[in-house]
Specification:
Elements lengths: L1 H10 L29 E5 L2 E4 H11 L9 H28 L5 H15 L3 H10 L4 H22 L7 H9 L6 E2 L2 E9 L13 H16 L4 H8 L10 E6 H8 L1 H8 L8 E6 L2 E11 L3 E2 L7 H28 L2 E3 H8 L49 H4 L22
Helix pairs in contact: 1-12, 2-3, 3-6, 4-6, 10-11
Length: 422
């Protein structure tokens, strides 16, 4: 059930810009492990066709362009996983049509414009990437339309869930007290400057230009300009969309992210809250603002700022995931699905080789447990989609070290080390 839940929650995401990372099918004979005809039907959902072009686009995104290094056996597995997510997305979209949750053209336009703005890329850059990926404005709008429709459907289905009662909140807290501990650490914001020429529209392309920009940023901050605003204008990292907020990092997180010396400096009680320091990590320059610090582990109670609400949010979120997964399970059971790609595998079990092409190594993103289809774009519709044009993958300490404030997994467990918002 948990697997279904995660897959459906992903399917509610907006998917248009994830498709930019894909490409059209390569054409050729229709084999399970070789080149595929993009116009061939991979599956149907209640008579609605899903083309191999969509499957190939998802596989290419998942393998990060290294699909040519997959063996026929691995490629066939990746295609089947991607197709399953596309089938589930189509089932839910058809339910959205029946429930009247399909967005208007104006809503689609507004979301498209929001994603373009959040990408940070110019119109010419976006148009070029769309063309390279074989996408058109119409196909992008169609993906956004489906994503919004499914999200609205899920909101409608889960709208009947009531807030948990006090007794349930207290029982949940009492059963998970170990998770409600604010660990020794700091809350940080940062302006990140990347000296490398990433081709993502950065204004710095080498070490001298990065240092010059860092000096300019520091000069602005010394004049009293708002840190969050400068971060939004100058940071070369996805955290700029949150005003540079990196979240809460424990002392161990700090050491892993910035090294012993910087961690010790930030944890030093003599460093005042609000101070700004510079640091290097992962080849990037960080202008870091110390927003808060906890000098010792602190047990949090339901009366601690924000904790009761985090418990409420966790419980509601878990209920929504279970309800959504159950709704999808029923929808899938009611739908008439013809998976032609799977049938070809069954009919030709001995045609797939496990040997990779000569000189090929295992692609980093070739894990078929998570289908990299439009159904697996970022689930938060208020933020820039994952790897959207102009947004670099979050390769900062925030992405690898910061702990979420309180996000419970599907099993209704609170996030470990959940810090309080002071």
């Amino acid at each position: 059930m948990q697997k279904i839940s995660k897959r459906l929650i992903a399917a509610t995401a907006l998917a248009a810009f994830a498709a930019f990372l894909g490409a059209c099918g390569t054409g050729g004979p229709s084999t399970t492990g070789g080149p595929a005809d993009p116009n061939e039907t991979a599956a149907t959902v209640n008579g609605q066709a899903i083309k191999m072009e969509e499957v190939e686009r998802g596989v290419k995104q998942q393998a990060q362009g290294q699909e040519s290094k997959l063996s026929p056996l691995e490629l066939a597995g990746a295609r089947l996983q991607v197709l399953q997510s596309l089938i589930e997305q189509e089932v839910m979209y058809q339910k959205a049509q029946k429930e009247g949750t399909v967005p208007t053209d104006d809503e689609v336009t507004a979301e498209l414009n929001k994603q373009k703005t959040a990408s940070g890329k110019s119109a010419d850059q976006i148009d070029k990437e769309m063309k390279d990926a074989g996408m058109t404005e119409a196909s992008v709008r169609d993906q956004i339309k489906k994503g919004l429709a499914i999200q609205k459907l899920v909101d409608k289905v889960t709208g009947k869930i009531e807030a948990p009662k006090d007794a349930e909140i207290e029982a949940f807290y009492n059963g998970n007290k170990d998770a409600f501990v604010k660990r020794k650490g700091v809350k940080l914001a940062a302006i990140v400057i990347d000296p490398s020429n990433s081709g993502e529209g950065d204004t710095t392309v080498d070490e001298p230009s990065a240092v010059a920009k860092a000096n300019d940023v520091i000069a602005k901050l010394k004049t009293g300009q708002d840190f969050a605003q400068v971060a939004r204008e100058s940071s070369e990292d996805q955290s700029k969309f949150q005003g540079g907020d990196l979240g809460y990092l424990t002392e161990d997180d700090l050491r892993q992210a910035f090294g012993e010396q910087t961690a010790a400096g930030l944890m030093n009680p003599q460093l005042p809250i609000g101070n700004i320091i510079t640091a290097r990590s992962q080849g990037k320059l960080f202008i870091v603002k110390l927003q808060d610090r906890s000098d010792k582990d602190e047990a949090l109670t339901l009366d601690s700022p924000g904790i009761r609400q985090k418990v409420i949010d966790s419980l509601i979120s878990s209920r929504k995931q279970l309800l959504t997964a159950s709704y999808q399970a029923i929808a899938m059971n009611e739908a008439k699905v013809e998976n032609y790609l799977a049938k070809r595998v069954v009919d030709n079990p001995n045609e797939l080789s496990g040997a990779r092409p000569a000189g090929a190594s295992t692609p980093a993103a070739a894990n078929t447990n998570t289908a990299a289809t439009p159904a697996n774009a970022a689930a938060n519709t208020n933020a820039a989609p994952a790897n959207a044009p102009g947004t670099k993958p979050a390769a900062t300490p925030a992405a690898t070290a910061a702990k979420p404030a309180a996000t419970a997994p599907a099993a209704a467990k609170p996030a470990a080390n959940a810090p309080a918002n002071k």
